[in-house]
Structure formats: structure tokens, C-alpha cells
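Friendly challenge for the regulars: who can give me the C-alpha cells for this chain first? No prize, just bragging rights.
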Amino acid sequence: MSLFATSGTIVCCALPALFVAVGAGASFASLVGTFPQLVWLSEQKVYLFTFGGLMLGIAGVLQWQSRKASCPVGDLQQACKDTKDWSIWVYFVSLALFLIAAMFAFILPRFF
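First reply, four minutes later:
Bragging rights claimed.
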């Protein structure tokens, strides 16, 4: 859930800034013309970031609580270990996406 929530923050705020920064403003205007919901997401960015941060917080607490959980013995042991490893990586990727989007949405506009 945290990955989907932070993906929304990327679509809302970091993607438009990236398009404009690389000189693809016309492409972004075409994208907004095709998907006008992007404007609504940008208008509701405080709620979007609040929801994303809440989901990341919950995911972080759950990751912390399950770090010492043991995996079952038998056929599922390796799958359990792989899933735990992937879960940590997905969490940190989600956190990185959230922080990048927050930088584009709240920090960089104050300087330009």
C-alpha cells in the first residue's frame, strides 16, 4: 500500500517538475489534456502526502515488528526469507520516492 501511495505523490508533483525541467512542457500539457485528473491530484497534494506519509509510517512500524519473525521450516522457508528481503527493499524504494516527490512539491518551489 505504501508503494502505491508514494507513486501517487510522484505522479502529482515530481513528474510535472521533471517534464518542465527537461524542456518537455508541451508534452506535459498534452499529458494533462489527456488525463485532467493530474490537476486535481496537484491541488490535493497536502492530503495526498499526508496519506502517503501515514501509509509509510504504518509500513515502517510493521517492518520493524516483523524483522525478528521466524520463517516456517520446510518448503516455504526460502520463499519466506526472499519475501522478507524484498519487503525491505520495497519499503525503502517507497520512502525514497516519497522524499523525492516531497522535495519537488514543497521544498524546490520555495526557491524558484
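The mean pLDDT is 85. The two ends are 33 Å apart (CA to CA). Your move, everyone else.
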